[in-house]
Amino acid sequence: MIVNTARFVTSSPSVDKCPDTQMHEYAFIGRSNVGKSSLINMLTGKKDLAMTSATPGKTMLINHFIVNDKWQIVDLPGYGYARRSKADRARLEDMIHNYILNRQQMTNLFLLIDGRHQPQIIDIEFMNWLGENGVPFSIVFTKLDKLTSTAARKATADYCAALLEYWDELPPVFRTSSVDRRGRNEILDYIEQLNQLPL
Ligand code: GTP
Ligand code: MG
Predict the structure, then answer these.
(1) Which residue, 6, 13, 104, is CA-closest to 49?
(2) Quick one: which of 166, 70, 84, 150 has its CA closest to 115?
(3) What is the dihedral of CA 151, 155, 160, 161, to 10 degrees?
(4) From the CB of 145, is ligand 1 less than 6 Å away?
(5) Are strands 62-67 and 6-12 parallel, antiparallel or unpaired?
(6) In 76-179, beta strands by DSSP E
(7) What's the confidence (pLDDT) of residue 166?
(8) Which residues surround ligand 2, an ion (CB under 5 A)?
């Protein structure tokens, strides 16, 4: 898919305040600082579309972007950022859970995992919750430019093997870097396929 246009629509504090546009929508989620906003910029080819930051916890609202006037991207706040108050974490968790469970247009959730890390309990629990609730999702390994190509292959294969100890099959898996742009075509082609499905 060629991205011709991409623009910010709005930021919403809760799912019931999100725009009611009837378009396929793809949300990006994962731990704070995993690279969600950077991936969105990489996919759209607009480096300042979603706000990125070296400080975790930058994204606090549900941010909508529209691509090619046809489908939407959603940048969600990261989960599991320890340096927030308990009340703030609970509020963000509610916001994320409500969005995922109630947003009819959400066609697929891209769950980002830092490709350098071993499986973390918080991510596994989140994937189990997605599975229990029948949420369609894919796994996106990020920051693979930080590993050699051999190490990147091994780390992501080991991660998938660990998941297969819990599950019979894996969701679709993408290997990406927002720096060297690997994985971009694969994700955009996947979105293009899903855009053909009835909403
Ligand atoms: P929150 O909104 O705080 O949850 O973070 P986020 O997941 O949106 O992460 P963000 O895109 O802001 O990136 C966090 C940091 O990681 C920034 O310093 C980015 O420059 C860096 N980063 C993101 N993706 C990549 C990547 O693919 N490669 C490298 N080397 N750095 C990356
Ligand atoms: Mg962000």
Answers:
(1) 6
(2) 150
(3) 90
(4) yes
(5) antiparallel
(6) 106-114, 137-142, 173-175
(7) 85
(8) 36-37, 58-59
pTM as predicted: 0.96
Provide the residue ranges of all domains of the chain, joining segments of one domain with +: 6-194
115 CA to middle of ligand 2, Å?
Answer: 17
pLDDT, tens digit, 9 for 90 and up, residues 71-108: 999 999 888 776 778 888 888 999 999 999 999 999 99
Ligand 2 centroid to Cα of residue 168, in Å, is 31
Residue keyed to tokens 């660990």: 162
Q: Return the ligand 1 atom nearest residue 81 CA.
A: 4
pLDDT digits (tens, 9 = 90+) for 27-75: 999 998 999 999 999 999 999 999 887 777 767 899 999 999 999 999 9
pLDDT of 54: 78
**Domain range 6-194, CATH class:** alpha beta
Locus of tokens 């891209």: 110
CA of 112 to the centre of ligand 1 (A): 11
Ligand 1 pocket, residue 80 CB under 6 Å: no
